[in-house]
């Protein structure tokens, strides 16, 4: 976060004290006042699993037979439902209001979910010591926000579950042709998209990678990252998100 933006945020925090993103009250205390204990406790953890491609219910979130061809993610784990307005408000406040203090409650949801998930013995996620990799932001976006919420989530996850995390494995690069050079509109649209590039293939070769992000919508981002990781030799790629 640059200085001007930091000062603006500091000033607005001073004028408008933190309110709970869920109920709009001034609770004080928890998560610096941005989320009250009651709202936090009322967020339900998911206990069903869905395929990343067709969203149909599948055992343990494993990508279904029909979606395996077009989806590089092998398994998808989703901690909470984005349709819960408190979850949506929480994640939006991190992303667009730069409220870093809300990453902790987002992580707590993931932690609760994983503890519940791990009770099912056959789904032991931590078998084979997966490498925790956050979905990177494009550098320009990182400089604008000042932090990557997925990277912080990945760090908390690795600390809490004794796993190894690295944020230097993949980078996000913008397709760089100057827009004016492209005549076709559809091509122009494609040109502004970013793509992933693996910087450390030796670190993922033969390993299970746990890809961490805040939100999964269509699954395109996770799949794109999983695709390049697998091309670099990753054995299995599991997507883990706070909400979908
Ligand atoms: Zn509240
Ligand atoms: Zn499917």
TrEMBL record:
InterPro entries: ComF/GntX_DNA_util-trans (IPR051910), DZR_2 (IPR044005), PRTase-like (IPR029057), PRTase_dom (IPR000836). Residues 12-68 form the Double zinc ribbon domain. Residues 153-242 form the Phosphoribosyltransferase domain. It comes from the Bacteria. Belongs to the ComF/GntX family. This is Uncharacterized protein. It comes from Candidatus Yanofskybacteria bacterium RIFCSPLOWO2_01_FULL_44_22. The lineage of its organism: Bacteria, Candidatus Yanofskyibacteriota.
């Amino acid at each position: 976060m640059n200085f001007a933006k930091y000062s603006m945020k500091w000033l607005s925090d001073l004028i408008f004290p933190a309110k709970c993103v869920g109920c709009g009250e001034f609770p004080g205390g928890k998560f610096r006042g941005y989320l009250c204990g009651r709202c936090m406790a009322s967020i339900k953890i998911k206990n069903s699993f869905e395929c990343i491609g067709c969203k149909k219910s599948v055992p343990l979130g494993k990508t279904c037979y029909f979606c395996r061809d077009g989806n590089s993610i092998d398994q998808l784990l989703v901690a909470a439902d984005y349709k819960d307005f408190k979850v949506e408000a929480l994640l939006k406040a991190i992303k667009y209001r730069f409220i870093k203090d809300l990453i902790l409650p987002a992580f707590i949801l993931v932690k609760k979910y994983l503890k519940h998930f791990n009770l099912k013995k056959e789904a032991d996620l931590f078998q084979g010591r997966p490498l925790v990799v956050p979905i990177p932001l494009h550098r320009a976006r990182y400089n604008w926000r000042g932090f990557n919420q997925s990277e912080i989530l990945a760090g908390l996850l690795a600390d809490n579950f004794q796993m190894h995390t690295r944020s230097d494995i993949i980078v996000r690069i913008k397709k760089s042709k100057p827009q004016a050079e492209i005549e076709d509109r559809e091509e122009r649209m494609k040109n502004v998209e970013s793509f992933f590039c693996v910087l450390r293939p030796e670190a993922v070769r033969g390993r299970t990678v746990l890809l961490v992000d805040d939100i999964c919508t269509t699954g395109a981002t996770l799949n794109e990252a999983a695709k390049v990781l697998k091309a670099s030799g990753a054995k299995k790629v599991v997507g883990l998100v706070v909400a979908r």
